[in-house]
Amino acid sequence: MHLIVGLGNIGKEYQGTRHNIGFETLDYLSDKKGITITKKEQSGVTGVYREAGQKIMLAKPTTYMNNSGQCVAGLMNFYDIPLENLLVIYDDIDLATGDVRIRQHGSAGTHNGMRSIISHLGNPEFSRIRIGIGRPRPGSELVHYVLGRFPKSEFPAIENAIMEAAKGVDIFVKDGIDLAMNRINVRKKIEKTAEKKTEEIQEKQE
């Protein structure tokens, strides 16, 4: 079994906030796969689908962000899921809004949800998809920023990021983390290079 975890906070007041991009990605995935994420277990809600001979569980912790590890560790232990089959999706202020990066391991950075998961598992060696939400303006409080909502101007970038992250999940499940990194991360680099060249051409024409 593969366990795909999206991080966020439960409750209507948190819907659509930057910190809930992991939840939104799982909502997109569950709709795409034709399932619901409603089964209550291990301090979270889950939904399962099968694809390419694999059983995949989507999970949202219901403990609030800072205690996400309680749910993840509980599911991993209960279903005896190997660490290499865990993939966590979350927001990252160190990436520009809409950027998507897949990593095989790493630190928690400033993300409290990831800190909780690493603490409960006792090991940072698991895969993750980071979705960029950008940084707050200098002087702004981080907590207010991550719990704020995206402006309409950023909706297209976020919608595209969610779709890219979902593609990353599919590749991870079918072909493994290395291919997921190669395809998603390289695609983003190519897109950035193309955008830069377009901007340079436009500047020269002006």
Please describe what this structure looks like:
The termini are far apart. The chain has a seven-stranded mixed sheet with strand order 2-3-4-1-5-7-6, sandwiched between helices. It has helices spanning 21-33, 68-78, 112-121, 142-146, 155-175, 177-205, and strands spanning 2-6, 39-41, 44-51, 54-61, 86-92, 100-103, 127-132. It contains six helices and seven strands; from the N terminus they run βαβββαββαβααα. Strand 2 and strand 3 form a beta hairpin. Helix 1 packs across helix 5 and helix 5 runs antiparallel to helix 6 (177-205). It has one domain: 3-Layer(aba) Sandwich (Rossmann fold). It has 206 residues and is α/β, with parallel strands linked by helices. The radius of gyration is 17 Å and the shape is globular. The relative contact order is 0.16.
Average residue-wise pLDDT: 90
Helix content: 40-55%
What is the alpha-carbon Rg in Å? 17 Å
**What is the number of helices?**
6
**In CATH terms, what is the architecture?**
3-Layer(aba) Sandwich
* Regions with little confidence, pLDDT below 50 for 5+ residues: 197-202
What count of structural domains?
A: 1
- What is the name of the CATH class? Alpha Beta
Identify the CATH homologous superfamily. Answer: Peptidyl-tRNA hydrolase
The N- and C-terminal alpha carbons lie at a distance of 55 Å
| Apparent shape | globular
Relative strand content: 15-25%
Order of helices and strands: EHEEEHEEHEHHH
Major sheet summary line: 7 strands, mixed
Question: How many β-strand runs?
Answer: 7
Q: What would the CATH topology be?
A: Rossmann fold
> What structural category characterises the helix and strand content?
alpha/beta
